[in-house]
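During the practical work, I worked with a single protein chain and the tokens that describe its fold, as given directly below.
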Amino acid sequence: MKIIPLKNNRKSQIGSRHTKKTLKKYFLASWTALKFVFNYNVPNSINFNSMYKVLPLALAFFAFDIKANCQISTETDSVPVRVSYFTAANNINKNMLNWKVVCYLNYANFQVERSTNGSDYTTINTFTADRIRCQSPFNLEDRLSSWRTFYRLKVGDRDGNFSTSKVVVVFGKEKSFEINSITPNLVINNTLLRVFSSERGTVEISVTNQQGNVVKRQSMLLNKGNTELELDLSILSKGLYFLKLRNSASEVRIAKLIKL
């Protein structure tokens, strides 16, 4: 357990901070507090040889002051690897990630994670670097990027203690349309399909089973921006299905759903 000073740079070791003169100050404050709180008849001048009479209360005020100005922490120091910077930028059809760390370990583990919605992350690269390698910057090329991609970096030791960097966002070329969500994707009868489109248009919707057979077809008119369509899947048997959307430019988006 360690004491972390919160103000006035007060040290955690009482003996090194509070000298005899400082202790007298606290005793004097406690003596005055007695007069204020308990209406004691306390003289203006104090004989410090008789301070033992109020020693318990003085120590109580002293401890209260320490508690009020210090925070007790039982946490150990974090992983001795610090991220100096972590950046990402789009370069035509790929995203370039760059970072630099300060490492006090012989070896450091790295995990690069990616997300398309900012909450669900998947690891796209893991590797280990020694202290000499950590003195130079790192970079990573990600070709599986979408219109908006979130990245974060995890660095840690061999025991699995990791710290996470800030999240960086990269905006690439806006796609013509994208499936935002299927709610719910565990379908009993109906599900709500949400699609984003950069322009007005029409897409053809097909639902196929695991054998590749098309079990349902219909078209969907897309507005510029977000469009919602309720799909009736009540006739389908239980199982896994693939929802495929194709626009006039033959661009395809696919999502999975399960019929209960």
The first helix runs from residue 14 to 17.
